[in-house]
Amino acid sequence: VEVEDSPKGRGAQQAAAEIGELMEQAVSSGAIRIEQLFDEHYRPIAGTNPAQHLTAFTELADRLFPEVQERMLGLSDKVVYCIAVDRNGYVATHNRKYNQPQRSGDVVWNTANSRYRRIFNDRTGLASARNQRPFLLQTYRRDMGGGRFVLLKEASAPITVAGRHWGGLRLAFGF
User: Fold this and answer.
1) Checking CA distances to 60, which of 34, 48, 66, 161 falls within 20 to 30 Å?
2) Taking a C-beta distance cutoff of 8 angstroms, is the pair 137, 5 a contact?
3) What are residue 81's DSSP bridge partners?
4) Burial of 156 (0-12, 13-18, 19+ CB in 10 A)
């Protein structure tokens, strides 16, 4: 059944497949080992608030994901963000707009603008990260810090690497 949000679901599926393929190519070329892609040892970055983390695949994500994630912002003028997250909701690299360095002591600004290297393991984030159906459509309130929330819809699709579920592609958009 074709509905208004169907193009976003297809976009999420396409981007998820592209991210998965990029990671598979990285494994095949020896740029990273498969075990590193599935690293769940989140090393905290000192002095960050909200807390940011590093994993064995963070640098690879910084190199590979922006090409796909930034392009997907052009799918519609309603698209707010496009991110790849691992099964636990970890976002190694966000869209450039939200990939800003944290400001010391400014948690409100950081919450809104420094959304990379973070773990979004709330109900919506984990549902997107762990979804293995072709796509999942959700509506949720995105916390932008300082008591400010934005109501968004999100289409997510699973990312697989070498036949294993790695995480999800989250494509969020306004009404």
Assistant:
1) 48
2) yes
3) 172
4) buried
